[in-house]
Amino acid sequence: MKIAIGSDHTGLALKEVIKAYLDSRMIPYEDFGTHTPESCDYPRIAEIVCKAILSSEFDRGILICGTGIGMSIAANKIPNIRAAACSEPYSAILSKRHNNSNVLCLGARVVASGLATLITEGWLNASFEGGRHERRVDMLTRIEQRYAIPVVPHPVKEDDTNPLPTADAPVSDN
Ligand code: RB5
Fold it and tell me: For labeling, which of 52, 148, 154, 162 is most exposed (least CB within 10 Å)?
């Protein structure tokens, strides 16, 4: 199993804790940023990590922001991503067994590092149960397809494509 991991500035410290846990289990991962404490926008990180998962090079993703909610909303905009923001292990485990979640979102301002590690552990150890849950997950995919907007060239706002902040980038807000 290979993990794509990312956080905004609020999740930086917790991301290091989760990376240390992955190291301890010898689970390979790649950190897609952010890498500095400067304020950055969570939707950009969510998109980068989810694109990595869709490339099939990574099996699952872990996204960390202040609450886990912004990351999960952003990730769930992307077809075939099923992101679950979890604050305890039970939901995280069930999100894999029943919903086949492929992204776990954690809130660095919500869960302490010990609990976040237990949540991650439970989620990584869980497997999709299939059966009736497969039918329901297939229904999720069909909802996605019903509301899919045909792909046409569209303008991308400059803010959406700016590089991630570097150590000397100005901090605008939090
Ligand atoms: C950043 O202040 C915060 O809004 C972000 O980390 C996240 O919690 C959004 O959902």
Answer: 154
Is 154 one of the annotated active-site residues of the chain? Answer: no
Q: What per-residue confidence (pLDDT) applies to 170? A: 46
Q: How would you class 50 by CB atoms within 10 Å of its CB: exposed for 0-12, middle for 13-18, buried for 19 or more?
A: buried
Residue 173 lies in a domain: no
Atom of ligand 1 nearest to the CA of 67: 8
Q: How far apart are CA 61 and CA 79, in angstroms?
A: 14
Which residues lie below 8 Å from residue 26, measured CB to CB, with a gap of 6+?
A: none
Q: What is the C-alpha to C-alpha distance for residues 133 and 141, in angstroms, rounded to an integer?
A: 13
pLDDT digits (tens, 9 = 90+) for 52-67: 999 999 999 999 999 9
d(CA 13, CA 1): 23
Q: Is 34 in the pocket of ligand 1 (CB under 6 A)?
A: no
Cis preceding-peptide flag for 34 (omega within 30 of 0): yes
Domain count, the chain: 1
CATH of the domain at 13: 3.40.1400.10
